[in-house]
Design goal:
The protein has 349 residues and is an alpha+beta fold. It folds into 3 domains: 2-161, no CATH class; 189-244, Roll (SH3 type barrels); 250-334, Alpha-Beta Plaits. The protein has 10 helices and 10 strands. It has helices at 2-6, 15-47, 54-80, 86-122, 127-156, 160-177, 179-194, 234-238, 265-280, 313-334, and strands at residues 9-10, 13-14, 202-205, 208-215, 219-224, 229-233, 242-244, 250-259, 285-295, 300-309. A hairpin with a 4-residue loop joins strand 9 (285-295) and strand 10. Helix 4 runs antiparallel to helix 5 (127-156) and helix 9 packs antiparallel against helix 10 (313-334). The radius of gyration is 38 Å and the shape is elongated.
Length: 349
């Protein structure tokens, strides 16, 4: 009698088939609960002991994305053992395609989001960079979900090829109309990843100079020494020769000084050694050379070259001031006079 009950057919399937599908789903669900979740707990405890964040991210990704897909997979396999109406079969298949599409899209976006966060952390958690990366991630989400929708509609039977062809023609027209904007957008990515300069860097572009305040998708804003804000398109910056003073390891300094023509040769010969001793005694400087290099209109001219370690302009000016004071004191002790513009007038009787 029990066999007769199980053998009864209802909606094209025996009760035995329904019972088998239910048992298969229950065993699969229970197996995921016992095996997979137990495995996740062990991996979590192991990941907590490691210093890298990749294993924690993979565990989180498995829990939030892969695990729900496994539950649906058990449900899909259980229904696959039954004979269903063609319309219901089609709906379940489309539901499976939808779930698969969502899972793949979420996997791609989660991986992209993890890479962006890792890049942001490695760059020192800069708040300005964080805003820029969020903008990039929004664009990536639009592209990924757009492709996911196109893939799903194609499985629904829509003629996507004609739509894509139309979009392609429209895209070419839009690209031609907005090529300046797109050029600035690609230049923004070049600045973001190639890093020719960063927020806070002091740069010179042509005859304009200032400190970088903001790097946007379309423009970059620089605060000049006069206080006004200079706005450059990103394409202008990537197509120009940019001098970045913030990344200067050492500053080369060249200055000249002149003494009077009445200065004795013996004192002239002492001057390079005096200047070299002064510069070598100043912290964070590297002496290069000091030479008597020309006869000026009213002075005997010396040329001095040295290096300041670091890029700070105020530090360079403090060092130059210290050197100037020391040279003035040393020349006064030696009785060496600095030259100034003079003219001698000879009158014949």
């Amino acid at each position: 009698m029990f066999k007769n009950i199980l053998g009864q057919v209802f909606l094209g399937n025996r009760l035995y088939d329904y019972l088998f599908a239910l048992v298969l789903f229950a065993l699969g669900f229970l197996g995921i609960k016992l095996v997979v979740l137990a495995l996740i707990r062990r991996i979590k405890s192991w990941a907590a002991k490691t210093r890298t964040t990749l294993d924690d991210f993979l565990v989180q990704l498995f829990e939030q994305v892969v695990l729900p897909a496994l539950y649906f997979g058990i449900f899909y396999l259980a229904l696959g053992t039954l004979t269903l109406a063609p319309l219901l079969t089609k709906i379940i298949n489309l539901l499976g395609v939808a779930v698969l599409t969502i899972v793949v899209a979420r996997l791609v976006l989660e991986l992209a989001n993890y890479w962006i966060k890792l890049y942001w952390v490695n760059r020192g958690k800069d708040t300005t960079l964080e805003r820029s990366l969020k903008g990039i991630f929004i664009v990536m989400k639009i592209v990924v979900w757009g492709l996911a929708v196109v893939f799903f509609l194609d499985n629904l039977g829509f003629k996507i090829t004609s739509v894509i062809a139309g979009l392609g023609i429209g895209g070419v027209a839009v690209a031609l109309a907005a090529q300046a904007v797109l050029g600035d957008l690609f230049s923004y990515f070049a600045i973001l990843f190639d890093r020719p300069f960063e927020i806070g860097d002091f740069i010179i572009v042509g005859d304009l100079l200032g400190t970088v305040e903001y790097v946007g998708i379309k423009t970059t804003r620089i605060r000049s020494l006069g206080g006004e804000q200079l706005i450059f398109s990103n394409s202008d910056l990537t197509n120009s020769r940019v001098r970045n003073y913030k990344r200067m390891d050492k500053r080369r300094v060249l200055f000249k000084l002149g003494v009077t023509y009445q200065t004795p040769v013996a004192k002239l010969k002492k001057m390079p050694a005096i200047i070299a001793g002064i510069i070598k005694g100043v912290k964070d400087t590297v002496f290069d050379r000091a030479h008597f290099f020309s006869y000026g209109n009213f002075s005997l001219d010396f040329e001095v070259v040295y290096y300041v370690i670091g890029a700070d302009y105020n530090k360079y000016m403090d060092i130059q001031q210290e050197i100037n004071f020391a040279i003035k004191e040393a020349f006064e002790k030696e009785g060496i006079e600095f030259a100034y513009p003079t003219q001698t007038l000879y009158v014949e009787k």
